[in-house]
Amino acid sequence: MSEQSAMALGLQGCPICTKVGPVECTSCEICGARLHAGWSNSIQRTWAWLITSVVLYLPANFLPIMYTRFLGKETENTILGGVVSLWTHGSYPIAIIIFVASVFVPLGKILVLGWLCLSIQLGSTFAVTQKTKLYRVTEFVGRWSMIDVFVVGILVALIQLGNVMSILPGMAALAFAAMVVTTMLAAIVFDPRLLWMSAEWDDLK
Amino acid sequence: MATWGRGVLIMASAKPSQMVCHECDLLIGVPLLEPGEKAFCPRCNFLLAANRRNAQDKIFAFAVAALLFLALANAFPFLGFSAQGQERTVTLLQCVAILITENFPSLAAIVFALIIAIPAIFLLGVIYFSSSLALSRRLPATEITLRWMLWLLPWSMAEIFLIGILVSFIKIVAMADVALGLSFWSYVFFSVCITVVVMHLDKRELWRGVRALPNE
Ligand SMILES: [Zn+2]
Ligand SMILES: [Zn+2]
Is B42 on the interface with A (CB under 8 A)? Predict the structure, then answer.
C-alpha cells in the first residue's frame, strides 16, 4: 500500500483506542471517546482559547513571576529576566530549556494554531500534510511549558527566611499557568480534519 | 467489512490491523504484535504500538508501587534549604500550601492537581481497569475508566515537576545549600514508576483486552 495520509482518505484514528473510522464521526464506535468532529464550531472555539492565551501571555511575560527579597531589598523577576540571569551566570543549558519551555513553545504554539485556523478560514490548500504534523507537535509539547510554574512553586516554598531572603509569587505565575492550560485546550478543540476539508474535502462528499 | 473514504477497505473489528500514525497521519496496516514486539511508523518513526512482555502484570505492579511512593512522598520532609545560618525544611504539601498563604489559591489548586491529584486519580483508574483484566471480569464502568484515564494522561505532570525541581536547584545552588529529603526520593521513584506504567500502556491491546471481557 502506498504511503497515504488518513485525513486525505477521509479517515481518522481514535486518540484513545486507535480505532480507524470515518472522519465525520463525532464519537468513537469502540470506546465512545469524543472525536475531533465532536467539537462544533471548532475554529471559533480554538480562536476563543487562543485569544484568551494571548491575553494571558502579555501579563505572564511582562509582570513579575516572583519577587526576591534579599536583606530587606525587594527585586522583581520576570520570565525573560530569569532566562537572562541564568545565561549571564553561565547556566547555558538551563537558560535554553527555560527559554524554550516558557517563551518559545507558548508563543510558537499560539502562532501555529492561529496560522492553521487562518489558513482554514482562507481555504488554503498549501502543505496540508506538514500542517497536520505541525499540529501534532504543538499538541505534544505544550505541557512542558509548565516547568516555570513549578520552579516558582518550589522556590517560594523553600526560600522563606523572612527579611534575610524570601521569594514571593507574582501575578505572572498564575497568568502563565492559566495560559499553558488554555493553549492545551486550544489544541484539544482544534479540528485538524478541517485542514483537509478546505483542501480535498469537497470531492470526498 | 465496510467501505469508507475513497473506496479504501477497512476490515471489521475482528481484525484490527489499520492504524493512523498520531504524528504524521500515515494510514498503515499494523498486525497484532507478539509479546516483545514493537511497531514504528515507517514515515516518521513514531511508536505506533508495543506489546511489551508481561505488560498487564507490570502495569498493575508499577501502578500500585507508584501510589505507595506518592503516599510516602507526602509523609516525610521533601526539600531542605539553608542559607545565612538559617534552615528550612518543607514537605510536598507545604509547597502547595504556601501558595495559598501567599494569596494564590488558584495557582495552588493548579499545581496540586497537576503533580498530586491527577497522577493519583490516574493510578487508581489504572489499578481498577487492570484488576478487571486480571480477574477476567467486567467490573462496573471498566471501559469508561479506561477511556478517562487515557484522556487524563497529558494532564499528569510528575516528570515535568521533577525537571522544575532540577531547575530550581540550579537557580539557588550558588547562594544556598539544598538538602534532598526522603520524600524527594519517593517522588522520584513515583515518577519513574508512573513512567513505566505509561510505557506499558498499549491502547490497542488494552481495548482488545477490555472488549474481550465477558459480560456479567
Ligand atoms: Zn476510540
Ligand atoms: Zn508517522
Answer: yes
Backbone phi and psi for residue A34, each to the nearest 5 degrees, phi listed first: -75, 125
Q: Which of A65, A33, A86, A91 is nearest to A178 (CA)?
A: A65
Say if residue A1's pLDDT is above 80.
no
CATH 1.20.120 fits A40-204, yes or no: no
The backbone torsions φ and ψ at residue B193, rounded to the nearest 5 degrees and listed phi first, read: -60, -40
DSSP run (H or E) holding B44: none
Residue ranges of the domains in chain B?
Answer: 2-51, 55-211
> Mean pLDDT throughout A141-152?
92
B163 touches chain A (CB under 8 A): yes
Reported pTM: 0.88
Residues of chain B with pLDDT under 70: 1-16, 216
Nearest ligand to the CA atom of B20: 2
Environment of ion ligand 1 (residues, CB < 5 A): A 14, 16-17, 19, 28, 30-31, 33
Q: Does B96 touch chain A (CB under 8 A)?
A: yes
Residue B74: partners with Cβ closer than 8 Å, 6 or more residues away: B91, B92, B93, B116, B183
